[in-house]
Amino acid sequence: MGCCCSNEGEPTEPLIPHTIPHPNPVSKPPNGTDWITTNVPSARTDEQALLTSILHKTAQNIIDVSAADSVMMEQHEYMDKARQYSTKLAVLSNSVSQKKALILPSLTSQPHQVLASDLVPYSDVQQVAKIAAYAYSAISQIKVDAKEELVVQFAIP
Amino acid sequence: MTTAALTAGLERIPDQLGYLVISEDGVLASAGELENDEHTAGVMMEMVRTASRFRLQGSADPAFKRMSVILDDFVYTVTVSGQKVFVVKRQNNPHEPLSV
């Protein structure tokens, strides 16, 4: 910006200050140069102030991740964290291995007696087979009675 | 308990056709029709594992002591004790109900 129009008579490129309609054409100085030099600095300060305020607001709303790296941790802090995490892991893996052990629970302390006892009566087996057949038949008759569209379009404005 | 002590009782089960003693690591002992039957061992292990996951409401322990896999001519009876799975194959003599 700055001095751009030395000759008013010549057709000039439309520069920003000229495109802004002046509220009072009469007060426009005869020389465009004067008008520009007197008005641009104030416009520039406004712009600068606006930019600064935008920058300030943005800076307040931003968490700079790359800056976090610069926060130095002492070695003992690293060690503390490492210890803390390994304790947590140990507790978690304990509960996991316990769960695995539970897959084979002890059903009896006298396996031989349990295995040698009488077999399940035939009538009981028949009854269970009948109930299972009823349940299978009931489940196979379950069906979806579709009344409206399962997938609908949300009206996004 | 030694393997011999584990199997001595199984030998005396009436109508038994064979047995398996299985741990998490594999078959510990086998005899009769189930001798070295790794396939049946694997299937029984998976079945008893699945069955023992079922819990009746409000109960922390499995609701059974023995699992029976009933077929026409024979029955596999399965139980778990001391982290070992015992499988005994027994003859099945189903008594047909008398139709009068």
Automatic annotation (TrEMBL), chain A:
GO terms for biological process: cellular response to amino acid stimulus; cholesterol homeostasis; endosomal transport; lysosome organization; positive regulation of MAPK cascade; positive regulation of TOR signaling; regulation of receptor recycling. It holds the Pfam family LAMTOR. SMART domains: LAMTOR (SM01262). Keywords: Endosome, Lipoprotein, Lysosome, Membrane, Myristate, Palmitate. InterPro entries: LAMTOR1/MEH1. GO terms for molecular function: guanyl-nucleotide exchange factor activity; molecular adaptor activity. It is found in: Late endosome membrane; Lysosome membrane. GO terms for cellular component: late endosome membrane; lysosomal membrane; membrane raft; Ragulator complex. Residues 1-30 are annotated as: Disordered. It is a lipid-anchor. It comes from the Eukaryota. This is Ragulator complex protein LAMTOR1. It comes from Solea senegalensis. The lineage of its organism: Eukaryota, Metazoa, Chordata, Craniata, Vertebrata.
UniProtKB/TrEMBL annotation, chain B:
It comes from the Eukaryota. InterPro entries: LAMTOR4. Keywords: Lysosome. Belongs to the LAMTOR4 family. It comes from Solea senegalensis. As part of the Ragulator complex it is involved in amino acid sensing and activation of mTORC1, a signaling complex promoting cell growth in response to growth factors, energy levels, and amino acids. Activated by amino acids through a mechanism involving the lysosomal V-ATPase, the Ragulator plays a dual role for the small GTPases Rag (RagA/RRAGA, RagB/RRAGB, RagC/RRAGC and/or RagD/RRAGD): it (1) acts as a guanine nucleotide exchange factor (GEF), activating the small GTPases Rag and (2) mediates recruitment of Rag GTPases to the lysosome membrane. Its main location: other. The lineage of its organism: Eukaryota, Metazoa, Chordata, Craniata, Vertebrata. This is Ragulator complex protein LAMTOR4. GO terms for cellular component: lysosome; Ragulator complex.
